[in-house]
Amino acid sequence: MITPKISPKISPKISMDMKMAWRNVWRNPRRTWLTISAICFACMVLIFMLSFQFGSYETMINSSVKINTGHLQIQAKGYFDKKSMRRVIENPDQIKEVISGIDHVEAFTVRANTFSLVSSKYRTYGAMVVGIDPVHEAAVSTLKQLTRVGEFLPNTQEYGGADMVLIGSLLARNLKVGVGDELTILGQGKDGSVAAAILTVCGIYESGIDEFDRNTLHIPIKTFQSIYSMGDAVHEIIINVISLRDVSMVKAQIINSLKNIPQGEALVVMDWDELVPGLTQAIRIDLTMGIIFWFLLVVVVAFSILNTFLMAIFERTREFGVMMAIGTTPKRLVKLLLYESNFMTIVGVGLGIIIGCGITMVFQIYGIDMSGSSEILKQYGMSGRIYPRLSIITAFAGPVLVWLVTVGVALYPAMRIKGLRPIEAMTHI
């Protein structure tokens, strides 16, 4: 015997309520479209602003770290707090082998740093002398692209550029030097000896970050190690990863790998968040201001929804009285109004997501010209064009918030129906 399949049916009562709610939504098309437009606009703005902010943060972080710090750094313990000349990584080649075997590492290089007196024919200033690998530095930082006058440091092994120096634009201006002029460096070596050298300016860079351009100059790492009696030691190993999402994973892998080598216990791994705390604070402040703006926008939409439904209840009070008189329960009327609010919200949120994502994707391809804020952007090494970043979070976080708020706000006018009395409602003018 074959048992016939019974297909589930929608309750006629629920189906009728939905039909009535949908019909009621369009009883006043102008008011309905104004409400839907407000919801759509709020969702569209939230999607675009979230994508723009997250895109600007990513650009800001990548631009800033690629000028100087990198996504990750390996240092001797205590070096970050106190830049002591003697706190070094003794055998950097051993660390390089470890890093080479880790996935998602884009590039890495070594650096050495110390504070010295730098003199020209006219002036003397204190500056941070940085020893870099001319070949690998170009893959890790944007220093080569930032060289505006002259040339980047040549490879000392190939071109005999051991006596060359790359200097920041503001420091060059203060010292009154240009390409081809000589600088004298005077400092203290790692072993306590006097470190001195005469170097020739090969290029001048300009990052837009005044402190960096005013206080630093770069020389080849081999030259640095020779002048300051460093041997093969360095102070930092700079690492860039493929994506910001990979930073924490790569950091954990490096920490685990360092445990297996003798000098690993004396080293620490720091990410960009620890290396540039000011950048994180700037992002948090901007995000806080953004949250305040989003909150005000949602509040405006919430009042728009509240006003719409209060007016709807006021205009339809007699209708509700008649419906209650013929047996419609207040609970069903509340459900009817909630259906109406959900229909309008769903239409508005749906249109907002489609339009917001579409606009954001266009600007994600072509970018937004921010040349008017070039001075502010330069402080973070950013160009005059910012690209929003659309993601699942930015596409749905704002609309979900709008939907929750509008549905919640609609509860208040809907609940007022429970207090209606049929006779008073039918005689309402």
Order of helices and strands: HHEHEEHEHEHEEHEHEHEHHHHEHEHH
| Mean pLDDT reading | 83
Please report the distance between the alpha carbons of the first and last residues.
64 Å
Oligomer: single chain
Report helical residue fraction: 40-55%
- Biggest beta sheet attributes: 6 strands, mixed, barrel
Which of globular, elongated, flat, extended, rod-shaped describes the shape?
elongated
Query: How much is the radius of gyration in Å?
Result: 33 Å
Strand order of the largest sheet: 2-3-8-5-7-6
How many domain regions?
2
- The overall strand count is 12
Structural class: alpha+beta
How much of the sequence is in beta strands?
15-25%
Spans where pLDDT lies below 50 across 5 or more residues:
1-10
Treating each run of at least 4 consecutive H or I residues as one helix, how many helices?
16
Description:
- With 429 residues, the protein is of the alpha+beta class.
- It has 2 domains: 14-64 and 279-426, no CATH class; 70-275, no CATH class.
- The chain is 53% helix and 18% strand.
- It contains 16 helices and 12 strands.
- It has helices at residues 12-25, 29-65, 92-100, 134-140, 156-159, 169-175, 210-215, 221-227, 247-258, 272-275, 277-315, 317-325, 330-366, 374-378, 392-415, 422-426; strands spanning 72-76, 105-119, 124-132, 147-150, 164-168, 182-188, 194-205, 216-220, 236-241, 267-271, 368-369, 385-386.
- The strands form 2 sheets. The chain has a 6-stranded mixed beta barrel with strand order 2-3-8-5-7-6, surrounded by 4 helices. It has a two-stranded antiparallel sheet with strand order 11-12.
- A hairpin with a 4-residue loop joins strand 2 (105-119) and strand 3 (124-132).
- The longest helix is centred in the last third of the chain and has 39 residues, at 277-315.
- It is elongated and about 100 Å long.
- The two termini are 64 Å apart.
